[in-house]
Design brief:
By secondary structure, this protein is an alpha/beta fold. Helix content is 31%, strand content 26%. The protein has a 3-stranded parallel β-sheet. Strands 1-4 form a two-stranded antiparallel ribbon. A two-stranded antiparallel sheet has the order 2-3. The model has no long low-confidence stretch (mean pLDDT 87).
Length: 192
């Protein structure tokens, strides 16, 4: 799946899931504002009857900003991404929902969606995106290509028992949304 550029999408650490906190005695600050200048965000603190310096500021990391974890194809906590698993506070504080296809379910989440008739997680996610869309589709070209890759792979290029009319309809919908079927066919052929 290297041709889908997963490194551009997936994070390998939890660093971006926490706030960076700057603390200051409220008696020393009169006004706070920020301004974006190019690639920089400048934070302006107007002092109240004093002069501020570095010694007046405290820096810390806040709690994780995670309300929900959606675990795709994860059977139990041992199958979690190591970056997420190493911070158990995330799983403790967030709602965990698991999606699994096939006969093997999950014991991880408080919400578990298992579809034994689905060819793949991609089929389940396309179905979910259809249910969630309002006035415009949720899937773009990159996402459609990724989902179609999963479906084509799980159905062994539409040749095994997982190939259903529902799968074929989804494949057509994904191609209409911009999925690059020729790229998928070429890259999966190379892999074989």
């Amino acid at each position: 799946i290297k041709f889908l550029d997963p490194e551009k999408v997936f994070e390998h650490t939890t660093d971006s899931l926490r706030d960076f906190i700057i603390a200051l005695d409220k008696e020393k600050a009169d006004h706070l504002r920020y301004k974006v200048e190019g690639d920089v965000v400048k934070i302006f603190i107007t002092p109240y009857r004093t002069q501020l310096g570095e010694k007046d500021l405290e820096f810390s990391l806040g709690d994780y900003n995670v309300e929900a974890v959606i675990a795709l194809g994860v059977k139990d906590q041992e199958h979690l991404d190591k970056a997420l698993d190493s911070h158990s506070a995330i799983l403790h504080d967030a709602t965990v929902a698991t999606l699994t296809s096939g006969t093997e379910g999950s014991s991880l989440g408080s919400i578990n969606w298992q579809d034994q008739s689905a060819s793949s997680l991609c089929e389940m996610l396309v179905s979910l995106s259809e249910a969630l869309k309002e006035d415009k589709p949720l899937l773009d070209e990159q996402t459609s290509t990724a989902f179609l890759t999963g479906i084509v792979s799980a159905t062994d290029r539409f040749s095994n028992d997982h190939t259903t009319s529902r799968v074929m309809t989804m494949a057509a919908q994904l191609m209409a949304a911009g999925a690059n079927q020729q790229l998928i066919a070429a890259k999966l052929e190379e892999a074989h």
